[in-house]
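Input chain follows. Return structure tokens only.
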Amino acid sequence: MSDEHNEFINAQYRLAAAADEFEEISSEEVDRVVEALDRLIAGVQSENIKHYLEEAASNIYYLVYEEEVDGTDEAIDQAA
């Protein structure tokens, strides 16, 4: 394997390990980042790049809002 590939794998491992640690992220920060990514997406022509940026925006959004969305789904299911 190339050095570049090994560096990529090591970076992914460090990110996964860091994700296991608790970090409080504010909804204001998430909103700012998602908004910035949305503006960036609007100016991109490549569909491949748009896809990755949209995926990043979605992943960042769910760092804070995932529990709220899950809770809303459960409340709707219980009401039905």
